[in-house]
Structure formats: C-alpha cells, structure tokens
Specification:
By secondary structure, the chain is an alpha/beta fold. The protein has one domain: 3-Layer(aba) Sandwich (Oxidized Rhodanese, domain 1). It contains 5 helices and 5 strands. A 5-stranded parallel sheet has the order 1-5-4-2-3. The two termini are 19 Å apart.
Length: 109
C-alpha cells in the first residue's frame, strides 16, 4: 500500500498511543462495523455525520481518522482539511491493518 501525504501508519499510531501522547482517534465506520471491532478510546462519528460534528471535534492535538481500509477516512480527512483542520491524519490501511499488524487478536471482517 502506498502512503499518501497525510497518512499515518498503524505502527506510528501504536507508538503514539503507547507513549501516552494526546490524540483523538475518529472512527467513521458504520454501527455494524464498530460492533465487530473498534480501537479502544476511539470517538465514533459515522462518515455521513462528520460535517455536522466539525465544530465539536478537537483541534488541540492530532485527529487521526480511521475506517475499514483507509479509503473513506482519507476522504473524511480531506473534508476536515478543507474545513480548517491542519492536524488531522488518515490511518493508512484502516482498522484492517491495525487488526493484522498491531492487535492480531481483534476480530476482522
């Protein structure tokens, strides 16, 4: 998978989280997907609802957007950039990559 300019890989995210650095992980998947698996302490806002929640999303530390494979989250991240966010990132490979590479015991779909 080729990384894009505003991508963060799952190993970098795991490092940020293990260091205790402040971040917000924004999960934009649908309810049935989140019911299967989720990364602990994620903020869940389905993709279609992101525009109506822009004003309440934190801007003081990195906002990392995730979906299943990293495609929809890249679109949401671009929308957030247009909306004035400058510290938002796309989780490359999404929760699928996280489950494969960081948390192999996590259920997959």
């Amino acid at each position: 998978m080729q990384m894009q300019a505003y991508d963060i890989n799952v190993h970098a995210l795991a490092g940020i989280r293990s260091d205790g650095a402040a971040d917000t992980l924004l999960d934009i998947r649908e309810p049935d997907e989140v019911g299967i698996c989720a990364i602990e302490n994620s903020l869940w806002v389905p993709m279609q609802q992101v525009p109506e929640h822009v004003e309440i999303l934190p801007r003081e530390h990195p906002l990392i957007v995730l979906c299943h494979r990293g495609v929809c989250s890249a679109r949401a991240m671009n929308f957030l950039r247009i909306s004035g966010f400058d510290n938002d990132w796309n989780l490359a490979g999404g929760i699928g990559a996280w489950a494969r590479l960081v948390e192999p015991g996590m259920p997959r779909y």
